[in-house]
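Fold this complex.
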Amino acid sequence: MTRAEEVRLLRERASEDTTYRTVASRADYASFTRCMLLAQARGFVPVRTGGDHIGMADYLRDRGKHAGLGTAHLLHRIGAQRLPKLKRLRTFADYDPHKTFTSGMAQEAVDLMDEIEGLLDQGEAEVQALAG
Amino acid sequence: MPVPAVDKEKAALFNELVTLDPADLEQAGRIEWRLRAKLRSQPADRELQVCIVQALLQQGKAAEALVLSEHMWASRAVLDQSCLDTFQLQLMSLGLYEWALDLMPALSGPGLISNSQENVRRLRLSWLLGDFDTFKALVDGVPDHSVTLLIENGRQFCRWVDDLGLGPHLPEHQRIIRSVLENRQVQVDLKLLREFDEEGSQAELSQCIYVAGTYAERCEIEDRLYEGLSGLYASVGQGDAPFWDLMMPMVMDVTSRPPYALH
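Structure:
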């Protein structure tokens, strides 16, 4: 079972604040790890700290910055917008205990993870060639 | 959110409305129609109109809520204090920030909203209007013995905005957000949080804007926001500034909003 599949299963079973937070946190982790493989295949060198989260997203964003359509464009969308939003939802889940974390927020995190998975799948052939 | 002191049925419907599960749009719709039925027999009842605006907001019906709110704005002088209080929050939810700010003096004073509530509303409105000087002054003006984690985060966030020289661009930043969200926004929520890691911490402000829309529609709105804001910062030589990470607008579905804090 992939991490994304685990998250979808968690989402199906989630029914209250704590489990919704867990879903968002794991969705972010699932996307982060998959994007990290892609970034490393393209030359990103992680420093193994929390800063890698931003560093990797910035790397993907910058690699796609001047591109038009195609994989580079997808990278920009992931790095500039989707991953940062998913990470922000994780921040809400982890650092905002006084506000309710709703079912809809958990679903948003899963939708973001699924979109990132889909964008990465679109560029799979190129990714495999680079990793390969 | 205050519950207006109205007749028992109105009060019951309003109380049920604001304590509903945010995802229960069907029940919000049923309450709206019951309120509308009452309004037909009491068309001049401003309290009922406030209740209906609330029902519309909770269903994501921004355009209808705007029309009714604009109509009510003309007769705001006859709203009692508790209705005015709720109406101000509704104006804020709809992105009518100038009007919400205009109501502040009528809500400030003994027996009305508390000083801390007033400060929080002023803080939110100053940010949403792009008035960074007022935002910073409110954050810096908190006495040291009253500083909370939120204010600490606010101060660190203001230093970042200052260091990056982003303050003068915030009115345009907010204008872009409002133009993209026009006729869509039904709630806005600001979160000032700080994430910690091995390298320290950074305060981030999230501007969560709630609309009725599918995931794809909301992504499309966010893409337009990103494009508009990127264009703004590139045009003033701030293209590499981390504006998106630092003060991210997030477009969320109305059903994912947090429940109201009642007081």
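Residues 8-113 of chain B form one domain.
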